[in-house]
């Protein structure tokens, strides 16, 4: 059985076709899970996991007994106050790292991919060993194209360690195009816009009818919904921590808000704020406590979601100081989103200028496509083109399932 895997920055999912019907893989009753894993004590040694796997299949399950995934992982970390929570490991795959850090990152990715493989095997009633895995056009990276090459190599190594015997890769906008292709009775040129948690990807494609989909060109931007969360935190919460009020450098607050970046989180926790005036000192030191930056990020994410359908929301920051809170408005979100929206619109302008003619439709998908601000930015870039809204969560993984079951394995 071949499955499609959307290993996302914020959320991960998998799917296949059974008897011609799209079948999402379920994770605790849900069709996706937050890309997070929690180890109550230390991250187990990869060599030990491989040895136990070689000894018996039952030992593989034993190796995952203490690992928690998704929202359950985050909740356990916040409850226990210690252990190791790793969120959005995909956002680190393209960055420079020493061999030991790379080893740990591969191991974390292995746990997530093994979690997916075991869930799929149990649901489908047979051992899953092959997969088509989605990848962005450009990974978030400090090394340019070499960063993307490293990221693919990390996923491939992790997939092998997780028990997959064959994996291939497909760019995420191309996967979304395959999903949209299934909905079109007649041939047309379409623009696919996939705005996820970590990246924004675009593809021009010929889709529909009885002919196979044809991807003409792809573009990528290493920015996504997690950048909105960081910007909203900087806009609405960090002034309460002393940003632009104290002598604490701005980059400290950026590091605190960047919960998906482990090196930045470590740097923030190493800082000494004992000589900062109150109330900033107590709040910053409270933010350095285990789980506090994760709670702050969750608060920013919830505020962003609330403001997608309302003009204002009240954020509770009582975990930092009794009674502390912040009123967050739609104007705050607009200001926080402005840098990201400008980048997306510049990318779409590049797409428009690079391609002769106009698409018949625009297919919009990805978790961040839920945001009204993002939808309006895409609509404004192509005001006369019909905008088709795909399933924000399943648009990419559905196309990966098509690639996994109906088409020849895509090239790597």
UniProtKB/TrEMBL annotation:
Keywords for this protein: ATP-binding, Nucleotide-binding
Record protein name field: Hsp70 family protein
Signal sequence, renumbered to the chain: none
Domain of life: Bacteria
UniProt entry tagged with the keyword Nucleotide-binding: yes
